[in-house]
Structure formats: structure tokens, C-alpha cells
């Protein structure tokens, strides 16, 4: 995964650069999906062949693991929404036939979640 960061001074995006992530934790092809910024940190979800993990960054380039999300049925693209009370909502798409999307909620430090099946394929 590469990122390109917006520079408000020049009103341009930077040249795409690869993200830095612990390859011992993510040894295969790891895709970073949809970074959302909250209180000075960027949060996103990295997915690989069968796993999804919440990660965070301070600079948009270097990412560290917050927690494994432990979701089955080939999870992948995930969007995040932070509320005013710092709770984060996670909407996860799953690809396995018949698997519905999941809605999760978590509070800081974002290591535990509650999941709800949304009864719709995303």
C-alpha cells in the first residue's frame, strides 16, 4: 500500500510513498484501507489474506498495530467513524458467500469491540 498526503501550503499531494508496517506482524500482502484521523492520529484497517487489524499512525506513513479484529468470512474493506465521545464505529465488508457486513463499536484504547451483523451483504 502507498499513501499520498495533502500539503495545504502547496495545495498538492505528495509523491506516493509505501507505508511502513511491521512485516513480522504482516508478512504477506497487506492492504491499508480508509484512514480516518481522530485527535492527531490516523486510524485504518489493514487486511491480508484472512485477517483484519486496526492500526494507527501519527504521520500517515508509519503504522503500528492497535488490535487484531478477529472477524471471519474473508473480511476486507472497512470504514471507520469516530463519535464525539471517542467511540469508533467500524463497518466491515466480508466476501465469503452469504456473509453479511458487520458493524463494530469500540472505545479507547480500541482493543475490545462489540459486533452486530447488519443482515446485508456489502
Q: Which structural class do you get from the secondary structure elements?
A: mainly beta
Task: Measure the end-to-end span.
Answer: 22 Å
Shape by Cα distribution: globular
What share of the residues does DSSP label as strand, in percent?
A: over 45%
Q: Roughly how many Å is the radius of gyration?
A: 15 Å
**Main sheet summary:** 4 strands, antiparallel
Number of strands: 12
Number of helices: 0
Poorly predicted residue ranges: none
The average pLDDT is 94
Helix content: under 10%
Order of strands in the sheet with most strands: 5-6-7-8
- Helix and strand string, N-terminal first? EEEEEEEEEEEE
List descriptors.
122 residues, mainly beta, 4-stranded antiparallel β-sheet, 12 strands, 0% helix, 48% strand, globular
Describe the overall structure:
This protein is mainly beta. The chain has strands spanning 2-3, 6-7, 12-13, 17-18, 31-38, 41-47, 52-57, 63-68, 75-82, 88-94, 102-106, 114-117. The strands form 4 sheets. A 4-stranded antiparallel sheet has the order 5-6-7-8, with no helix packed on it. It has a 4-stranded antiparallel sheet with strand order 9-10-11-12, with no helix packed on it. A hairpin with a 5-residue loop joins strand 9 (75-82) and strand 10. The chain is globular and about 45 Å long. It starts with a strand and ends in a 5-residue tail after the last strand. The mean pLDDT is 94.
